[in-house]
Amino acid sequence: MTGTAEHRQEHPAPRVIAHRGASGYRPEHSRAAYELAIEQGADAIEPDVVVSADGELVLRHENALTDTTDVAEHPEFADRRTTKTVDGIEHTGWFAEDFTWLELRTLRLRERIPPLRPANTEYTDERMLRLEDLLALLEGTGVTLVAELKHPTYFASIGHDLGALFAERMRASGWADRPDRVVVECFEESVLHEVRARGVQGRLVYLMMAGQSAPDLVERDGAAALTYRDQLLPGQLVRLRERGIDGISLSKGFLLEDGADALIERMHGLGFDTFTFTLRPENAFLDERFRSAEDTSGDAGVTIDLAEHGIGTGRASMRWLAEHGRWQDEWRAIMSTGVRWVFVDHPDLPHRITRD
Known about the structure:
Elements: E1 15-19, H1 31-39, E2 44-46, E3 48-51, E4 57-59, E5 82-86, E6 89-93, H2 101-104, H3 131-138, E7 144-149, H4 152-157, H5 162-173, E8 182-186, H6 189-197, E9 203-208, H7 215-221, H8 234-242, E10 247-251, H9 260-270, E11 273-279, E12 303-305, E13 315-317, H10 318-322, H11 327-335, E14 341-344, H12 349-355
Helix pairs in contact: 5-6
C-alpha cells in the first residue's frame, strides 16, 4: 500500500469537510450537527439534497426517511410506507418525495447508527432543515458549502428536476454567484453541467465509488456503462476535465490502493481539485488493516455478522465496532497521497493529526 505513515510524502494538510455536519457527535443534517461543525473549525459543510412532494429541497442523506427520523412512530403516515427502487436498489420504508414540507417538519430527527454512536441518541428534538436554512446559517462564517445532489436521475423519473430546483434556490438566496464558497457534487455528471448552465458559479465535483457506475450512465448505456474506475483511466480523466469538471471525489478505498499517490498527482496535473470520503474513526468503518484488536476475554455483548453489513468477515461485537481503532494511521496514509479535501464525521479529529 502506498503512502503508509512510515513512508508518507509531505503534503499540505487537507481541508476538512464536515460530512452531514459534525455527524459523529450529533444526528446527521441536524442544526446541532451543522453548528458544531462550524464551532470545531470545519472548512466546509456537506449537506445532501433531496426533494419533497411540493418541491422543497430537503437536507437528508437519502430520500428514505426510515432510519433518520421518527416517521415510523406517526400513525397518520403509516399508509405511506412503500417499496421503491432507487438507482437500482430496492428500499422499503418512507420517502421524502411522498411528503409535503409541512408534513416533513412534523418529524423529529434520529441518529442513523445508534449502536455505534449512542451519545447521539440524546438529541431527539431536532427538526428537518431545507437548503435555505443551512445557507442562512453559513452567512458570515466563511465556511464553504459542499452540496451533494442526490439521485437526480431517479427524481427526474418522478417529475422533479433536481438541478433546476437547486439552481433556483441558489439564485434566490444570493449564493449562485459565490464561486469561492460553493462546491456542487454528485455521483452523476450530467446534473453538474445543468447546474452550471443555470447560473450557479462554483466548482463541479464528480463523486466516484469503487465497484459502481454512475446512474445517469446506466440509464443511458445500460450494461455497457463505464464504471467509475473506468473513468479514472487517463484518457477518461482528460475528457472529464475538458467537459468542465473541476474536481474528483473518490471513496477512500481508492486512496488505500497501490499507486494512489500517482493517481492524485495525475489529477492535479490535469487541473482537478481532489477529495475523498469518508474518514471515520470507528472500527466498523476503518479498513481492516487499521482496526484495533478485539478483546474477546469477557462478555462480547451483542454481535453481528460483518459480511451482512459489508464491513468484513466473521462476527464482531457492537461494542468493538463502535470503538475507535487505529484511525490516525489510516488517515495519515490517505493524507499522504496529497488529496486536498477530506470528508469527516468528526471535524475536530484531523487537526490532531496535522498538529503531530
